[in-house]
Amino acid sequence: MLDSTTPAHDLKQRVLAFSDVLSKNLSLPTRKFVRDMLFGILASGSVQVASIARALKESIDLKKTCERLARNLSDLSYREHLQLMAFLATSLRKQVVPSTPILLDHTDIVKPEARKMEGLGYVWDGSRGVADTKGYAICEAVVHSVESNTPTPVYTDLYSYKEKKFLSVNRSLYDAVEFLHSCYGTKGIYTMDRGMDDAKLFRFLHDRRLAFSIRLVGTRHVTNAKGETLSARDLAARYKGNRTYEFLSRSGKLRRIDYSAVPVMLPALPGIPFLLLVVRNYSYKPLLLLVNPASAKEPRSPLDFILAYFARWKIEEIFRYRKVSARLEAIQVRSLQRIRNLNLFAMLATAFTATLARVESHRALREVLFGFSKRERERKARFLLYALAHAIRRLLGALKQGIRYLLPLPIRKRRFQQLEFPQIRFMPAFQFS
């Protein structure tokens, strides 16, 4: 059966259209490279250069394709890196409203057996509370669509603690916030977990009038309206929840939470009003959220901040998706520049899959892909991104042709490289009265 008569042909065209939109202001060789990387990662389900080269199915020797991809991974500049992320982030600008959760968190990729990779350093394992495995840290940002319940990654920054230009983990987080602020203004709710309980970060977000919902550590000291300074845990024990909210959990069960909004200030930031949201019946311990509705331009209710934090786990799903469906931790290049760019393309491939799951115009293709996904048929609950990734890899991997001669890129009109008649006749020395 010909490729043009299968859903794979439609899928191939959408992959190329997505990559062309992201790279429309870049040079022609770079745009071709972006096409190759996105298609190769989606078709092979891997970030290994050899797997990407095989998925392209070019008529030249495989070694030459690998060399070209590796060379372009080194040549992709930091400016082009940011430009690709900026086009992706701004494409979601209309979907970001004041109550949209913008999720930020840190993760890592571990390479315990690597010896020659550049900048290898020990990374923190939060589940075990130790830093005894070598790898790289990643700061990531995700925009969560409430309507479709789909997270879309929009920012990623892989860094090494051993880099000379590395300053701090907070600096990488501030860079992510500045990037998102330039794309979305003051819209959205910046949502983070207990690892970001930091007075410097609270000040940084407050100065930019950005709304945030950050989970507090129970020992964080706060000052209530009566002037008492005590731990957030002790203050929360006084409130049993004077408001209720019911919602459907992921398993389809009806759940009810009780919450209270308590005006507080932080001793480290005097004069700045905050709200401490005490949420009960969500977990076995009261959930403590520090929010700043008064400092943001657009009004937001306490419930908006709570629901934004409930969506925080979606960024963990994005991390897991990249490590499983793109085999991010199986990366096999040595240069830190190449590792950083491969992480970028893995994020862009994830964003394409999320776009298929989120955008209504892709609904017909999405339903076809579900039919091709073995994972979807075997599970009771729908895991959209995993099901789509399995179907995309199955369809694109079975194609007999790659993308080299499909949908040629438009070439910009260039200026004349030498003095020809159309130019000469407008030069002052050749104008006759």
Blueprint of the fold:
Layout: H1 7-22, H2 28-44, H3 49-56, H4 62-75, H5 78-90, E1 101-110, E2 121-125, E3 130-145, E4 150-159, H6 169-184, E5 189-192, H7 199-207, E6 211-215, E7 221-223, E8 229-231, H8 232-236, E9 243-248, E10 254-266, E11 269-280, E12 287-291, H9 302-310, H10 313-325, H11 336-358, H12 363-372, H13 374-378, H14 384-397, H15 421-424
Parallel strand pairs: 1-5, 5-6
Antiparallel strand pairs: 1-3, 2-3, 3-4, 6-12, 7-8, 9-10, 10-11, 11-12
Helix pairs in contact: 1-2, 2-3, 2-11, 2-14, 3-4, 11-14, 12-14
Radius of gyration: 25 Å
What would the principal axes of the Cα set say about the shape?
A: globular
Q: How much strand?
A: 15-25%
Spans where pLDDT lies below 50 across 5 or more residues: 416-433
Distance between the termini: 68 Å
The averaged pLDDT comes out at 85
- The helix tally amounts to 15
- Tally of strands: 12
Order of helices and strands: HHHHHEEEEHEHEEEHEEEEHHHHHHH
Give the structural class: alpha+beta
Helix content, binned percent: 40-55%
The largest sheet, given as strand count, sense and whether it forms a barrel, is: 10 strands, mixed
Supply database-style keywords.
alpha+beta, 21% strand, ten-stranded mixed β-sheet, globular, single chain, disordered C terminus, 433 residues
Give your account of this protein's structure.
The protein has 433 residues and is of the alpha+beta class. Helices cover 41% and strands 21% of the residues. It contains 15 helices and twelve strands. It has helices at residues 7-22, 28-44, 49-56, 62-75, 78-90, 169-184, 199-207, 232-236, 302-310, 313-325, 336-358, 363-372, 374-378, 384-397, 421-424, and strands spanning 101-110, 121-125, 130-145, 150-159, 189-192, 211-215, 221-223, 229-231, 243-248, 254-266, 269-280, 287-291. The strands form two sheets. Strands 1, 2, 3, 4, 5, 6, 9, 10, 11 and 12 form a ten-stranded mixed beta sheet that branches. Helix 3 crosses helix 4 (62-75), helix 11 (336-358) packs across helix 14 and helix 12 (363-372) packs across helix 14 (384-397). The N and C termini lie far apart (68 Å).
